[in-house]
Amino acid sequence: MNRQSNQHVARGLAAGLGLATLALALAWARPTGAAQLSPAVIYYGMCDASAAVAAGTNFFVVANDEDNILRIYRRHPGAMPAVTLDLSRFLSVKGKSPETDIEGAAQVGNRIYWITSHGRNARGKDSPDRHRFFATDVVVGRDQVQLVLAGRPYTHLLLDFALDARLRRFELIPASRVAPKAHGGLNIEGLTTMPDGALLMGFRNPVPGGKALLLPLLNPGGLIAGESARLGDAIELDLGGLGVRSIGFENNRYLIIAGPTGGKGEFRLYEWPGPGAAPKVIAGVNFAGVNPEGLTFEAPDGRREYFVLSDDGTLKVGTEDCKRLKDPGQRRFRGYTLSF
Q: Could you tell me if 244 and 190 are in contact, meaning their C-beta atoms sit under 8 angstroms apart?
């Protein structure tokens, strides 16, 4: 069967089986050796997976951008969270719609740093609860994982942006007054480690001059101890007009999931050696039907495999959007192993 026939059959399979199997059908239609997404693994208890890190070999920690709860899941399919940690009191949320919009995570040793979007809410209204940078420590046992709160949440990152003359050309403060998905809005969605111990923040929005914006944070440990942010030089990457939806560092290079600044559009996976080099698209990855927001790395048997989580808040479960379901046992999100 030729490739065109394969793709025709794949589309037919996807139409019959639904979005959860679309990525699998398209992966089967690709030539041997291309990047592929595994069949979807379903996890229950939440919908809007927004950031995640691995915890040992059998667990992962995931944030949900619709509440302030971190959840620890076992890797096996069909799992409900094994552990939950409500951060509302720790993060001192006070608004009527108190979600902090956690969007990025990066692990340094046994410490996980988390960052919120730092943007306004979807209607463009000021939302100070979304201005948080904080940390948890992860304790991995033989068959359990625990999270411990670390330091104090930091709430003045936008002020640090305003005080840094190097950032004025990006107009981040005017951007912070616009709805996060609107043209020129502000929305941080990526966070990863750098080889020198700093962190790298990735912006979904804005994309100044059509370039994705990344900004080094040099003292993450200092922030949760009360220091002001020390920032490195901003980096602009050509991701084809897309912003950063997730970023991670592994095997001496970064992997970036790039996506639209608004609600709809294509996603691409890029490999980037680091500052001074150009990013390169990893061909063959088709995110159709997937809303990839979280990415954590695995390396079983030395193979290059990566775990992609889908933000499925608007995915239909019956006739309802997943995020509107009242029963946590019906809420779900998908995970995919990406291999290439």
A: yes
Whether residue 73 contacts residue 59, with contact meaning beta carbons closer than 8 Å, is answered with yes
Pick the CATH number of 41-339 from 1.10.10, 2.60.40, 2.70.98, 2.115.10: 2.115.10
Q: Is the pTM of this model over 0.90?
A: no
What are the helix (H) ranges across the chain? 3-17, 22-29, 88-91, 157-163, 172-175, 220-223
176/33 Cα distance (integer angstroms): 43
Contact between residue 202 and residue 247 where contact means Cβ atoms under 8 Å apart = yes
Domain ranges for the chain? 1-31, 41-339
Task: pLDDT tens for the chain, 340 residues: list them.
Answer: 433 433 333 333 233 323 333 333 333 333 434 678 889 999 999 999 999 999 888 899 999 988 999 999 998 888 899 999 999 999 999 866 678 999 999 999 999 999 999 999 988 999 999 999 999 999 988 788 999 999 999 999 999 999 999 999 999 999 999 999 999 999 999 999 999 999 999 999 999 999 999 999 999 999 999 999 999 999 999 999 999 999 999 888 999 999 999 878 899 999 999 999 999 999 888 899 999 988 888 655 566 678 999 999 999 999 999 999 999 999 999 999 988 7
